[in-house]
Write a structure and sequence with these properties.
The chain is α/β, with parallel strands linked by helices. Helices cover 49% and strands 11% of the residues. The longest helix has 46 residues.
C-alpha cells in the first residue's frame, strides 16, 4: 500500500496550523489570567492608598460586652484571620478584626484602633504571609522583609500582653500550589521565609503567650496545604477552619483551667 504524496502535503501544514492555534490560544488564555491578576493587584494597591490601615473595615469605637460572664476573644490579622469562623461556645464572645491583604505593619499600626478598645481577654494572631509573598518582587530586600515581619509580630504580641490579654500567636499558615497566573510573582523562597518566621514565632512562647503551631495540622509532608483543607493557594475552606477550631478548643480549655487554678 502506497501513501499519497498529496495527503502528506496537506497533513503537514494542517498539523502545523493546529499547533500554532494551540500556542496562540494558550498565550491568549495566559494573558487574560495575568491581566486579571494585575487588575486585582492594582485595585488592592489603590484601596490601600485610600485607606492605608483599613480603618473603615471595622468600627473604631469600643464595643461594650453584652454578657460580662463571657470571655472576649479577638481574632486579629490578615485575610486568614478574617476568614476564621469562630467556634460556637457560650462562655466566649468571639470578635473578628482580620482584614484581607494586610501586611504585619498595617496590622500593628491599626491595633490600637481595632483591638485595644475592645479590651479582649484573649487575642488570636495570624499575620505575615502578605509580607513574605512580596519577596519575589523585591529579592534584594528579602532579609529586611523577614526581619520586619518578625519584629511586627513581636510588637503585636507585646501590645496584646500590655492589654492584660492572653496571646495565642499562630505560626503563619502553609501555602499551596500556586496557579499559573501567579507563578511570575512567586518563588520557593516564600515557603522558606515562612519557615524562618515560624521558627522565630516559636521563641515568643512564654508567660501569657501560647504558640499555636498550625503546620502539623494544615500542611502535608512537603509543607503545602493539605488538599482537603485548601480553598486556594493562600486560603482555607470550612474544613480547614474546623480542624483549626478543634485544636483551638484544647488551647482555650488549658487557658480556662489555668485561670481557675489561679483564682482569677
Amino acid at each position: 500500500m502506497h501513501s499519497n504524496p498529496k495527503n502528506m502535503a496537506v497533513s503537514k501544514p494542517t498539523i502545523l496550523s493546529i499547533a500554532l492555534l494551540l500556542v496562540l490560544g494558550s498565550s491568549i488564555f495566559l494573558n487574560i489570567l495575568l491581566l486579571g491578576r494585575a487588575k486585582q493587584y492594582y485595585r488592592e494597591l489603590n484601596q490601600t492608598r485610600l485607606d492605608p490601615l483599613g480603618l473603615t473595615n471595622h468600627p473604631i469605637n469600643a464595643q461594650p460586652a453584652t454578657n460580662t460572664k463571657q470571655t472576649r476573644v479577638v481574632f486579629f490579622g490578615d485575610s486568614r484571620a478574617a476568614s476564621w469562623t469562630s467556634p460556637n461556645l457560650g462562655e466566649y464572645e468571639f470578635i473578628n478584626r482580620g482584614i484581607g491583604s494586610q501586611t504585619s505593619v498595617q496590622a500593628i499600626e491599626r491595633f490600637a484602633y481595632h483591638v485595644s478598645s475592645l479590651k479582649p481577654k484573649i487575642v488570636i494572631i495570624q499575620v505575615g504571609v502578605n509580607d513574605l509573598k512580596t519577596i519575589p518582587l523585591f529579592p534584594e530586600s528579602r532579609n529586611a522583609i523577614v526581619a520586619n515581619c518578625q519584629a511586627n509580630i513581636k510588637r503585636i504580641v507585646e501590645e496584646s500582653k500590655n492589654l492584660g490579654a492572653v496571646v495565642i500567636v499562630t505560626t503563619i499558615f502553609p501555602v499551596g500550589e500556586v496557579p499559573l497566573e501567579r507563578k511570575p510573582f512567586w518563588s520557593d523562597d516564600i515557603s522558606r521565609a515562612i519557615q524562618e518566621v515560624n521558627t522565630y514565632i516559636a521563641t515568643l512562647a512564654g508567660d501569657k503567650v501560647i504558640v499555636f503551631d498550625t503546620f502539623p495540622i494544615l500542611g502535608d509532608s512537603q509543607g503545602k496545604i493539605l488538599p482537603q483543607y485548601k480553598r486556594d493557594e493562600l486560603h482555607f475552606n470550612v474544613q480547614g477552619y474546623e480542624i483549626l477550631n478543634q485544636n483551638l478548643l484544647r488551647i482555650l480549655s488549658i487557658i480556662r483551667q489555668k485561670k481557675i487554678q489561679s483564682g482569677l
